[in-house]
Amino acid sequence: MAEKRQSAAQTLKEIMGWRPAFASVLQAFEPILSAQEEAASALCACAKDSGLSLPPVQNNRLEQGVSLLMGESLTGTAPTVQYCADRLLPLLSSLDALAAQATSLSTFFAHCHEGDGQISDTLVNAVAGNDEDALSSLARVEGVEPSLLGFTAGFVVGPVLHALVVNSFVDGAALWEGIWRQGYCPVCGALPTISWLDKRVVDEKNAFLVGGGGKKHLHCFVCGADWTFRRGACPACGKEGSGVLEFLRESGTSHGERVEWCTSCKGYLPNVDLREREFVPHLDALALGMMHLDMVAARNKLRPLHPTFWNIPS
Ligand SMILES: [Zn+2]
Ligand SMILES: [Zn+2]
Asked: Are 112 and 222 found together in one domain?
């Protein structure tokens, strides 16, 4: 992405200026997203030493649409999960929804790194594989409400997966760049939470090399991966062509924000056109701050491609 990248806190502050009605929700998540960001960058510095890495890339598997972690098991995750749990659990436990389960959750994460760290590995693979059955089994053992464990584990494990993804770049390029053509994540297989159109590219060494921007990228909330995708195609059902995707946007200044929805499967995805913004936002913070469009989508009987805690239709 281009320079002028915002931190989660900067993106949330900008959005609160535009949509003060969301301030209390965004302020509640600001410390959590910031702690995730800090944990991910700290883990990036040591992820290779800790033995955590993505499995070797086989281009033919990527070409066939096999995500990197499909059929793979990450091991040795306990130290990194402990690092994230120590930083995130106290913040998550202060949310009203989790307060009643704070003790069970802290017991659960205390057990995660006992012994050979098997619980931790199972947890990371369950989050990375979006495996709700595995999460429910883990929750039952400690008497934690499964949906709350899923919510908490997503935040705690997120930085571990983000560090894996960032550390897998070679010379600034993602391993899947130019190969991956699917609407789901090349790393974990989840459907995206938000898409973005890139800014104009200016090559300072050659004034004639100016790209128009507007290339479409999808972003994964689970592992943090981004990948390019065909602009006129639905990431969920794959249908493509003119008239497949329609748009919903706020009247007035939209800051490049809109919802793209598929006329075929009725799935929708928030989208931001970075050519209409000065700064490159933190995408998870932005997705949270676009709840107003999730509400519009829900009223239109559309369903989010990737259900999250802020977009589940009532
Ligand atoms: Zn992913
Ligand atoms: Zn579709």
From this structure: no
What is the pLDDT at residue 1?
45
Ligand 2 centroid–CA 262 distance in Å is 5
Amino acid at 173: A
Q: Which domain holds residue 282?
A: 194-304
Torsion of CA 236, 173, 10, 83, to 10 degrees: 90
The two tokens of residue 287 are: 């997705």
- Please give the pLDDT value at position 49: 66
Both 26 and 160 in one domain: the answer is yes
**pLDDT at residue 209 above 60?**
no
Q: Which residues surround ligand 2, an ion (CB under 5 A)?
A: 234, 236-237, 262, 264-265
* Assessment of whether the complete model's pTM goes beyond 0.85: yes
The number of CA neighbours under 13 Å toward the Cβ of 109 is 27
Q: 94-140: per-residue pLDDT in tens?
A: 998 898 999 999 999 999 878 788 999 999 999 999 999 999 999 99
Q: How far is the CA of 306 from the centre of ligand 1 (A)?
A: 11
Place of tokens 């009605």: 21
Domain count, the chain: 2
Q: Report the Cα–Cα distance between both ends of the chain, in Å, rounded.
A: 35
Is the residue at 73 inside a domain?
yes
Structure tokens at 105: 């959750």
